[in-house]
Design brief:
Amidase signature (AS) enzymes, about 500 residues, 16 helices, alpha/beta, globular, 11-stranded mixed β-sheet
């Protein structure tokens, strides 16, 4: 029963629970047992909540029983009894939230993030918090103070980052879906590396309240799941305006109807030449082009588009994001919350707390950001980067006047080996070269699996859509997944 339950998709689990084919407690126990068996190898979780999850599942079973007796199943919360995991960069009230950093090792969240609360209101059960690069600063989940997460397809390789724990947990069947965050590709790149589906919504579509800030104009909360259908379902309940987040927008969240045989005839897909660059792994380019060709055979029209300022996205991002991080992380001073190193003077306390509390990558980005914002350099670096960011956004605006979605690789290669980029930060930054523009422009992006390379590592494709058009890219991805079986493959651990 355990192996059967953990292989079901979100949609299948909810249908089985509704029809009484199995109980919430059986589902939660199956996942908890699998976490206990597999996570020592993968290390996807920082915190697991077995007692709380079982209690919530028993309560959900009681609600199901009462509803069957009264004939009111249709009025139940739509996600009742569904287990999920939450990236340890997103707050859940009463649960430790470390952000993968020593400086928050003992921090217990006093409130729940709005996006997570929406899912709890819809009936989900949280099984635990997943591993992350420290403060989401990384592309491999190697900078976490809790240690690295390992790719379930090959334990000698990274799962991607910074939502590597969430992606690995979904890929290894430790959870049917998980919440991640995406500042420069942190949902989509690990989704690609681990062979799962991940959505980065439009900036302002999902509340950032309760998402611990890295780059406030870039951060977005998203979903990782096995299928586009599953990710769309959770996204639709997580999204919406939030008065606690001034950047959320009062745009209605569409009902995303993904029919079994999704019709995409007439939809227009753009292919940007700027994303097929020298140095890309040949197997990645081949698989992406084949996937685009398949979408064309399903009825979509394919045309070339240009995003001419793409080449500036990497330097622009690594000026804006560290600058915002420098400001956001100033609050970790040993006084208000988190770890504190006691010293005789206030200055020594600051230096020792932040010196011991932050890891090397976080310190590097704080220094980069502080420099970019400093007197004499602000106009030359940060202000200029913001102007170029506007040009990048205009590229997308103009392209989306001609096409409904843009298709391209997620990353230049499949998952690299642990430690491969340890001594070369620039090589690590280049892993996000295809995902950064989406965050800079604020448009939605969706990654999903389209094959494997010769080493057996998953390959993903990225679909980007106009602002608030998540439904368009979900429909395209679902059509592809109805015609293929890549998303059904699972690693053998």
């Amino acid at each position: 029963m355990t192996s059967k339950l953990i292989d079901l998709t979100v949609v299948q689990l909810l249908s089985g629970l509704k029809h009484g084919e199995f109980s919430c407690v059986e589902v939660v126990r199956a996942y908890l047992d699998h976490i206990q068996a597999v996570d020592p190898k993968v290390h996807a979780f920082i915190t697991v909540l077995p007692q709380e999850a079982i209690e919530a599942a028993a309560k959900a079973d009681g609600i199901y029983v009462s509803a069957r007796r009264s004939g009111s199943l249709e009025s139940l919360p739509p996600l009742l009894g569904l287990p999920i995991a939450v990236k340890d960069l997103v707050t859940v009230k009463g649960v430790r939230c470390t952000c993968g950093s020593p400086i928050l090792d003992n921090f217990i969240a006093p409130f729940t993030a709005t996006g997570v609360q929406h899912l709890l209101d819809a009936g989900v059960i949280i099984l635990g918090k997943t591993n992350t690069d420290e403060f989401a600063m990384g592309s491999s989940t190697e900078t976490s103070a809790s240690g690295p997460t390992f790719n379930p397809w090959d334990l000698s390789r990274v799962p991607g980052g910074s939502s590597g724990g969430s992606a690995a947990a979904v890929a290894a069947r430790m959870i049917p879906a998980a919440i991640g965050t995406d500042t420069g590709g942190s949902v989509r790149q690990p989704a690609s590396f681990c062979g799962v589906t991940g959505i980065k919504p439009t900036y302002g579509r999902v509340s950032r309240y309760g998402l611990v800030a890295y780059g406030s104009s870039l951060d977005t909360m998203g979903v990782l799941a096995r299928t586009a259908e599953d990710a769309a379902l959770l996204f639709s309940y997580m999204a919406g305006f939030d008065p606690l987040d001034a950047t959320t927008v009062k745009v209605p969240v569409p009902t995303i109807d993904l029919a079994e045989h999704q019709e995409i005839r007439g939809m227009r897909i753009g292919v940007p030449a700027e994303y097929f660059i020298k140095g890309i792994q040949p197997e990645v380019e081949k698989s992406v082009r084949e996937a685009i060709q398949l979408l064309g055979s399903l009825g979509a029209s394919v045309t070339e588009v240009s995003l001419p300022h793409t080449k500036y996205a990497l330097p622009v991002y690594y000026l804006i994001a560290p600058a915002e991080a420098s400001a956001n992380l100033a609050r970790y001073d040993g006084i208000r919350y988190g770890v504190r190193e006691d010293e005789a003077s206030l200055g020594d306390m600051f230096r020792k707390t932040r010196g011991h509390g932050f890891g090397p990558e976080v310190k590097r980005r704080i220094m980069l950001g502080t420099y970019a914002l400093s007197a004499g350099y602000y106009d030359a670096y940060y202000a200029k980067a913001q102007k170029v960011r506007t040009l990048i956004k205009r590229d997308f605006d103009e392209a989306f006047q001609r096409v409904d979605a843009i298709a391209c690789p997620v990353a230049p290669s499949t998952a690299f080996r642990l430690g491969e980029h340890a001594g070369d930060p620039l090589a690590m930054y280049l892993e996000d070269v295809f995902t950064l523009p989406t965050n800079l422009a604020g448009v939605p992006g969706l990654a999903f699996p389209i094959g494997f390379d010769s080493s057996g590592m998953p390959i993903g494709i990225q679909l980007m859509g106009p602002h608030f058009k998540e439904d368009t890219i979900f429909k395209l991805a679902h059509a592809y997944q109805q015609a293929t079986t890549w998303h059904k493959q699972r690693p053998q651990l």
